[in-house]
Amino acid sequence: MRLNSLGRGLAVVATELAFLAGTSWAQTATCDLNSDGAVNAIDVQLAINMELGSATCTANVGGVLGCTDNARQVIIKAVMGQGCHFIMLNWGPSPSSGVTGYNIYRGTSRGGESTTPLNTGGAVSGTSFTDVGTVSGTTYYYVIKATNGSIESPPSTEASATAL
Known about the structure:
This protein is of the alpha+beta class. Helix content is about 15%, strand content about 25%. It folds into two domains: about 5-20 and about 85-160, Immunoglobulins (Immunoglobulin-like), CATH 2.60.40.10; about 25-80, no CATH class. It contains three helices and eight strands.
């Protein structure tokens, strides 16, 4: 693996990010938790109950989201007519000491990533992130930056994925 280093010792893996995009397989069906042929408020309630553990977890949104907050968000988006899709990002961990997390930046053109991270609730502690705010047919460009809470590494190699 090649690394981009920052003078203060932070690095982020500069290899290609791996993506699992909400692909063309049964997009609406995976958000239809009760299999009644419609994605509606009943599916949202089922997702909430499964996420809270008050119902058996049978959700399999996009084949990977299971009974999670991200699955619930995708189902709510589908109920609002915005499609049952997402993009899941995975990357290698930084080998640098002191890394407290990662910031994810997205744009809709090469090199056009926002200066504000997608993860507005703080740095992502793991090495994956689910972008539930995608629009079908739109190609998104992503970079990841490691952080120690006060400084960030240079960006990872840019990678792209299209929400289907």
